[in-house]
Specification:
This protein is an alpha+beta fold. Helices cover 15% and strands 40% of the residues. Bound molecules: the ligand N[C@@H](CCC[C@H](N)C(=O)O)C(=O)O. It is found in: Cytoplasm.
Amino acid sequence: MTATAPAPAAVAAPQARLAVVKGHGTRNDFVLLDDRDGALDVTPALVRLLCDRRGGVGGDGLIRVVRAGHVPQAPAGAQWFMDYRNADGSLAQMCGNGVRVFARYLEHLGLWSPADGDLPVGTRAGLRTVRAVPAAPEVGDVAWFAVDMGPATVVGGPDALADGGDATVEVDGLAVTRPGLSVDVGNPHTVVVLAQDDDLDRADLSHAPRVLPVPADGTNVELVVPAGESRRADGTLVGRLRMRVHERGVGETQSCGTGACAAAVAVRAWAGPDAPAVWLVDVPGGTVEVTARPDGHVVLAGPAVLVADVDVALDALPA
Ligand SMILES: N[C@@H](CCC[C@H](N)C(=O)O)C(=O)O
């Protein structure tokens, strides 16, 4: 009689895992992915699943860190490329809150340190440079990052300003259609200035505002209320805005960095040459600072926070 070998103990099939980090800038939140060697196939479906707030990790967008050498469209001068995707899986050219969180993530990965000096980041909108700075004095003694966002331009030029805007925008919850101003910050924005806080609070951004003429590539819509000016101890005149935003490819978010730049540039263009160059923009998720430099570039400053390391069980995501 031959001995029967004992049955092997059941071994669970190894699960496919993906290590990601969750981070945010003024509660505009992102799933961060380290793909430094460009080995991952990040499909729109995977982005949607990871950004899903119930079935996935949850985020307004996904940011993939990849060496610029692995990205044919990366601009010259960058070692790292920020591959930004909206929560619906679509590509966007630029994310102002995201690029600060990108820098914080590189620091966390040991791939860059503020002590190394400025960080040039490749994006689909071109090169953006990030550096560590102290927060605006109105906010307190915390560490921020500042980003040279390049030029932010009123698309229709002076004609659009003279006409009160180059678009009309219909927002649920607001009785009348409003004029909007198109501003290019590398990605498209339409800024609507409202007269009072009440209007801003009443706007229903659970649906996308309807913009005419319909922008060919969609747009991010910012609703803005001017909230006065003040002087800092060093004499700097600072304007203040309240802002809510409906983002292309996402929905209403708690903050939008490129949107804050667009809002400050639009209000400044309407206000004329004596308007402040520095603006604090209060969004539902916090405060960012936008500075219009004499050379036409805008600088966006604000916080960048990492909140969790997540080991995602890819098999658990719905097919
Ligand atoms: N939240 C971002 C902008 C992200 C891209 C935007 N939704 C688009 O499609 O252009 C920011 O902080 O700038």
